[in-house]
Amino acid sequence: MITTTRQISICILNGYPKETRDNFDLSGVGHPHDFFIGFLNRYVPSAQVTLCFAADSGDILPEGCSLEHFDGIIWTGSDLTIFHLDDERVAKQIAFAKAVYEYGVPSYGSCWGIQMAAVAAGGEVEKNPRGREWSIGRNIRLTEEGKQSLFLSGKPEVYNGFVMHLDEVTRIPEGGTILAYNEHCKVQALEVHHQKGTFWATQYHPEYNLLEMAKLITARATPLVSEGFFTRTREVHRYADDMIALHDNVNNPELRKKLRIEDDITDRQIREQELRNWIDHLVIPNL
What we know:
This protein is of the alpha/beta class.
């Protein structure tokens, strides 16, 4: 936990459309903005948080609010497709991210956030030819630049992270640096300097835990079966149940071995290192 000489103001942008958020509620799936709020409550309890639903109609920021009010912007994931530029829900978020770069507010994003970081600065995102990466992104490796990056300071050179995505960054914008990768996704962590802004982002999700990923996997049972990861829906549920059981007892050796899960997933100190680094090295120095 840290304290600052003045209150930090953070804007969290939930990129999911309303129909998806409603389905999350019906399915008992947690909302990613709540995971970030939980992190901020633990690490910067004095932070003032403004929550915005960026895919909804109308202006993204509340009336009377502007970018000058914020010390940092956090982007959650989304089930929209960022290269569908004819979708107003996508286009308005890209336009907002460009405005953030122009104004210079430090940004962090997971999944959809890394794609936003790239596209808003002139990069490209495409469908991953290797298909969906789900549950645990394995053997994420720091690049040489990643080993020197303040964003990934304190992370192991090789680690795992929670994932659920179909697309990947395929062209790095000018001012962008790949900080981590794995065999499934060429860009797992990215730093972008563009105009006045800096955007730190990961394709994986430091904000998730075993319980919340299990809920998301259960909700995505149908595509996981249709894409060949499981043969039956009940197998998905058994897998998710094992994740929940391990969440309840992180030292269960049988489940850790069965699910191939180590401390980089179960230990919040390791898993959330990127988020703490963003606050410590990007937000606070720019207050």
